[in-house]
Amino acid sequence: MERKDILMLKIDYQLVKRSTPVVFPKNLGFGNYFTDHIFEMDYNEQAGWHNPVIKPLSQMSMHPATMFIHYGQAIFEGLKAFYTGDDKPVIFRPERHFQRLNNSARRMCIPEIKIEDAVCALEELIAIEKEWIPRGEGEALYIRPFVFGVDPVLGVKPANNYKFLIILSPVGAYYPEGFKPIKILIQDDFVRAVRKGLGECKTPANYASSLLGTELAKKAGFTQVLWLDAVELKYIEEVGTMNIFVRFKDEIVTPQLTGGILPGVTRASVIDILKEWNMNVVERRLSLDELFEEYKKGNVLEVFGTGTAAIITVVGLLKYKDNTLMINDGESGEVALRLFDHITKLQRAAVEDTHNWLHYVPVKEEVLV
Ligand code: COI
Question: What is the pTM assigned to this prediction?
Answer without folding.
Answer: 0.95
